[in-house]
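Per-record layout

source: Hahella chejuensis
name: Transcriptional regulator
length: 289
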Amino acid sequence: MDLRELRYFIAVYELGSISAAARRCYVAQPSISAAIQHLESHLDTLLFSRHSKGVYPSDSAQRLYPLAKKLTSEAQAISQLFRNKPQPMPFSLGLMRSLGAERMSFLLKELIQSVESLELSLVNPEEPCDARIITPAYLREDERFQPIWLDRYLLALPAGHSLSLQEQVSLEELDNLPFIHRSPCDALESLQQELRHRKISFLTRANIRTIEYALGLVSAGVGAALAPDWPETRERKDIVLRPLVDVKLELEIGLAYPKKRAMEGPLACLQGLCLRRWEEAGTQERAGG
């Protein structure tokens, strides 16, 4: 038994789901499952029972939970008690739009927890900064690129829309479809190029800049939109996501950093965190396939 296993257990207990716990801890689901199995073996008891929507805690889990919370909190307090108070370590990170609030929050939280006295500033990617999270299209010649996520884009439709009854949507069915245009969006630009080639055009009903507003307008029935296949997007009940036929809309998101900058301090930590997420995403995809 170790503190990491107890933290994974706490996440599963509080969220009632292995997949949700994996997203909170930002690890692959097998890592959560393995930690729970090891705890159950070590304690010789069943902690969770599965059901269609997640897991139920057992009586043993209910007894373990307050003890696990107390132990992990005390361990954190001990670490903080004996830490010196070094000078703040400034680090500026440029963030492009539409990165996904949930996953970015977990990444930034882990960075802040991993680098003592980090003073993090978030800026636009065009501003001077130590590193940027962008797509390869905006990579400069003097930068290296570490992939983090591969976003797949789907068609978001209002719940109850006639096209939502289909398993997938053809490009021809986008002709004259009311649409929420979001810019900048590389995936949308790729789709529009293909539509122009086929002489297809949708009807733009709104021009906005954020995914959140786009999905809000989709939910209100204003039109359809392109949306990334993020867990928080899939969990929405007010919209329906459908793949488009004959076009593959994917967008690689990664960390860009100067080639000549030494790989140390917050940059080295952030690069390592990004690499781990990229490798875990590949592991999950292979397991799913």
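summary: The longest strand covers residues 143-158. The chain has nine helices and eleven strands.
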